[in-house]
């Protein structure tokens, strides 16, 4: 079972999710698998791209829910899950994903204000931007459920990290530079590979409050120009030509960075890498026995811990004829009892890295308690909810836009000799060019 779920986590979502439901429990009903019930007597239909929702439906249905929760699984396309939802008949009652909220989709979803109230919470219990509001309806349309957090991984015997539970962006840069080792003008040991770690680049942009977000124009992107300038200048300063130039790092990546990150950190080729806590914890314990981690934070100048990826959220469709039952499922899922049940199933099925919907629960009621219980030997307490930095609402095609334009342009800006204002002009031009090509596809 462990190997099967590892394959799902590493990209076998489309095939793996449907097989998983059959392996885990017959009480999870997959949409399209057939039912003798009339549509009006069937349980809520939940659309998701998250393997953990299958576990959640299994646990909830085991409580004797009649009719049971049904699951439709799909792999999010460029526009997230909404394009798939539009092809479904009947439409789902709810969506659980981290790829369904963008300006043009918000009007599709019903208010979750009553859901927040039923959990004895208020909007003030959540950090800024954790709750997504439909500006026209002036109501919240998604409940954040789960977040993945970034960690910097290093060797346990590294004296520079003794006693550290967190590492700031500035500390990471300084400690990485001092570790760089040259031999015959070739880099043979690297402190960190910033341009080879897309997750780091986006996390660093969040720390600098670049605030990429969807603009008022459909499928457009905007950001904070002054923060972008500071962010780019910081990254350029990472490489000192008198010590280790960018070209030497690129040669290191081509010639020596061929193993998985945990092997390169363990054998000393790399001092640090950045990944998600769940990915770190999914590595077999025998392979991380010499490794440790510290939470990645902005520090005093840029307080807060950026999310590793967009949070998993739950939304109810306005068109749902099962809103009350869907609301009941979401209430249970985000309650202490639901979180406990999902963690118990995760342990029972021996699934690496899955935890609660792929991350830690976004709850004001102390995720540290659950984390320390279900991650035995956890060295560092999980950061509090009030420390997490949530992003702005992003365009529907953000994932593809980030991969094909944003991150390549950030790397190009680091390498380019021109000033940052010119770099931003180039980014704008590349985004416009990409948008034209995107609309033609």
How would you describe this protein?
- The longest helix is centred in the last third of the chain and has 21 residues, at 420-440.
- With 441 residues, this protein is α/β, with parallel strands linked by helices.
- It is built from 16 helices and 18 strands.
- The protein is 38% helix and 15% strand.
- It folds into 2 domains: 2-146 and 310-389, D-Maltodextrin-Binding Protein, domain 2 (3-Layer(aba) Sandwich), CATH 3.40.190; 150-307 and 397-440, Periplasmic binding protein-like II (D-Maltodextrin-Binding Protein, domain 2), CATH 3.40.190.
Descriptive labels:
2 domains, 441 residues, D-Maltodextrin-Binding Protein, domain 2, 8-stranded mixed beta sheet, alpha/beta, Lipoprotein, signal, 4-stranded mixed beta sheet, disordered N terminus, 18 strands
The low-confidence parts are: 1-19, 21-27, 32-36
The tally of helices reads: 16
CATH superfamily of the largest domain: Periplasmic binding protein-like II
Major sheet size, sense and barrel closure: 8 strands, mixed
Q: Tell how many strands the DSSP assignment holds.
A: 18
Could you please say which CATH topology of the largest domain applies here? D-Maltodextrin-Binding Protein, domain 2
CATH architecture of the largest domain: 3-Layer(aba) Sandwich
Specify the structural class: alpha/beta
Highest-level CATH class of the largest domain: Alpha Beta
- Our measurement of the CA-to-CA distance between the termini, rounded to an integer number of angstroms, reads 39 Å
Summed up, the domain count is 2
What level of helicity do the residues show? Answer: 25-40%
């Amino acid at each position: 079972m462990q190997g099967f779920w590892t394959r799902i986590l590493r990209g076998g979502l489309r095939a793996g999710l449907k097989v998983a439901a059959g392996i885990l429990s017959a009480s999870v009903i997959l949409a399209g698998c057939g039912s003798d019930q009339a549509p009006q007597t069937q349980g809520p239909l939940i659309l998701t791209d998250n393997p953990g929702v299958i576990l959640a439906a299994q646990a909830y249905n085991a409580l004797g829910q009649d009719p049971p929760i049904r699951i439709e699984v799909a792999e999010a396309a460029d526009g997230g899950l909404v394009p798939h939802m539009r092809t479904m008949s009947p439409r789902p009652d709810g969506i659980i994903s981290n790829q369904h909220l963008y300006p043009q989709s918000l009007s599709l979803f019903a208010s979750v204000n009553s859901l927040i109230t039923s959990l004895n919470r208020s909007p003030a219990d959540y950090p800024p931007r954790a709750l997504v509001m439909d500006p026209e309806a002036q109501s919240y349309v998604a409940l954040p459920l789960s977040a993945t957090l970034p960690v910097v991984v290093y060797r346990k015997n590294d004296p520079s990290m003794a006693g550290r539970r967190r590492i700031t962006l500035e500390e990471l840069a300084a400690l990485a530079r001092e570790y760089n080792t040259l031999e015959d003008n070739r880099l043979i040991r690297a402190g960190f590979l910033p341009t080879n770690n897309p997750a780091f680049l986006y996390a660093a942009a969040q720390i600098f409050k670049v605030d990429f977000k969807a603009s008022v124009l459909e499928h457009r992107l905007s950001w904070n120009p002054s923060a972008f300038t500071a962010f780019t200048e910081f990254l350029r300063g990472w490489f000192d030509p008198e010590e280790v130039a960018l070209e030497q790092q690129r040669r290191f990546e081509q010639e020596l960075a061929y193993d998985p990150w945990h092997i390169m950190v363990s054998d000393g080729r790399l001092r640090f890498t950045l990944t998600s806590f769940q990915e770190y914890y999914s590595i077999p314990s025998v392979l991380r026995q010499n490794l440790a981690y510290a939470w990645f934070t902005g520090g005093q100048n840029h307080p807060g811990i950026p999310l590793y990826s967009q949070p998993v959220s739950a939304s109810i469709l306005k068109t749902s004829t099962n809103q009350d039952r869907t609301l009941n499922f979401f209430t249970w899922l985000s309650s202490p009892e639901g979180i406990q049940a999902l963690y118990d199933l995760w342990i029972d099925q021996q699934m690496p890295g899955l935890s609660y919907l792929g991350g830690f629960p976004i709850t004001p009621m102390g995720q540290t308690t659950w984390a320390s219980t279900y991650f035995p030997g956890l060295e560092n307490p999980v950061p509090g909810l009030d420390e997490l930095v949530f992003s702005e609402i992003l365009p529907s095609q953000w994932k593809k836009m980030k991969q094909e334009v944003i991150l390549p342009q950030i790397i190009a800006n680091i390498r380019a000799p021109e000033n940052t204002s010119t770099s931003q002009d180039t980014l704008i031009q590349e985004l416009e060019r990409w948008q034209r090509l995107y609309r033609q596809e």
